[in-house]
Prior knowledge:
This protein is mostly beta strands. It has a domain at 184-314. It has 3 helices and 26 strands.
Amino acid sequence: MPKWTIDGPEQLTFGPVSKVNVWIVAGRLSVLASEGPPSLEVSQVGDPPLTVTLDDDGTLTIAYKDLTWDGLLGWLRSKRRVAQLTITAPRDCPVQAGVVSASALVAGFEQRTSVKSVSGEIVLDGVSGDIHAETVSGDVESRGLTGDLSFTSVSGELTVADGRPRRLRAKTVSGRITADLDLTPTGHVTLNSISAPIVVRVPRDVDTDVTLRTTSGRLDSGFPELRKIQSDFPAPIPKALRGRLGGGMASLSATTVSGDVALLARDKSDADDFIRGDFLTGDLLDDVDDLDDLHDTTTDPRTTKNTEGEADAR
């Protein structure tokens, strides 16, 4: 089994790689799908050195000796363990990447991808397949999602840009969830938070069943088809909006305890703005404030009815 000890800048090229495992503490990590030979480029590494192994089954592991996947979230002794490295591997490789405070980019993989972070930010770019992300306070941004994403965090935020998920499950305590989605007929989205807001934008002509719930937060919807769920029980029974958009098929559920929930309608012109990056600079969140103006000025009787239902729900 080949083994290397990396204590300074280094470039390595490997034979066939079937799986990538990498765990670092601080610095920057990039794991990129590539058609070329698998490789590792280390531009910076502190003390102690990194250990690199390539098992007989093709598993490439890059880590410190005393840093493991299972113990990653409880490992905070960063000291001088700063590393900057880039790994390339075939796009059909499963990837397991863990960081403490380092930032991480994982791009282009199509199989199972698992990422863990304590406080480091993680970007998933064009990753499909089965994706699991877990953080304490680190944010996760997903671009071009076309697989199954499961996200859990205490206070980290989740941003999904240009997402077309089969399944998206997110759960946070106080981390904001923001998602711009195109739902397939079999897509299922379930978003939950305790105190953080949830903002979702979908095409105006989407086909999905929707349920929005909050106990003490505010509910906003750009779709007049959604109706307040009536209840004979007193507070704190959750307020809810529910309905079928288009022909249904997909499902979308967003639930908070004290956070606000907003479902926004995306027109075709908005998609062009999104491609230019406006989504990530805040324009999507600005649309939440515009909902109140929409409710106040519209003369459409369906919208008026929905506005009243939302007022009651608040």
